[in-house]
Inverse folding.
């Protein structure tokens, strides 16, 4: 869970900006976009396979 506490002399805009960056780092925004529409199980499997193949290629490269 992302929590933002106000720093001394920090404006609300700065806190919101820091909150957005923390959400991006945690991958919350990416997950929300991905879960905003239905994805067929076959598409999920296809995406997972592509992701794992990318990892294998990177390992093989080095």
């Amino acid at each position: 869970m992302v929590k933002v506490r106000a720093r001394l002399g920090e404006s609300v805009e700065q806190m919101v900006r820091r909150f957005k960056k923390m959400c991006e780092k945690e991958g919350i925004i990416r997950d929300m976009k991905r879960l905003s529409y239905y994805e067929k199980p076959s598409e999920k499997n296809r995406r997972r396979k592509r992701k794992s193949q990318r990892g294998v290629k990177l390992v093989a490269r080095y």
